[in-house]
Amino acid sequence: MLQINSMPDHIHILIGYNPNQSVASLLQLVKSESTKWINEQRFVPGRFAWQEGYGAFSYSKSQVQEVIRYIQLQEEHHKKTTFREEYRAFLNAFEIEFDERFIFKELV
Length: 108
Known about the structure:
There is one protein chain. This protein has 108 residues and is mainly α. It has one domain (3-102). It contains four helices and two strands; from the N terminus they run E-E-H-H-H-H. It has helices spanning 23-41, 64-72, 74-77, 83-93, and strands spanning 3-7, 10-14. Strands 1-2 form a two-stranded antiparallel ribbon. The mean pLDDT is 90.
């Protein structure tokens, strides 16, 4: 793990990983183990659960320090833009077609 930072409605994790492991299996492991730990520690009232889905984007080694800094400054960044706006911007920047129905939901 190179960098991690969370906001109330999302988390950014920058990792280097073995390309023999699929992103889907890696995220399933991260979500299941963190859910188990959060619930065991009783960090939230009731049961904690992640939303379905995730976004995964790749970066070159030359961009690692820039991405680390971006993740570190999440609180400041989100004073200007919401998570949904940020996520749409990532999808557009990476030229990923998407259906608005499947974009993450706002916290209630």
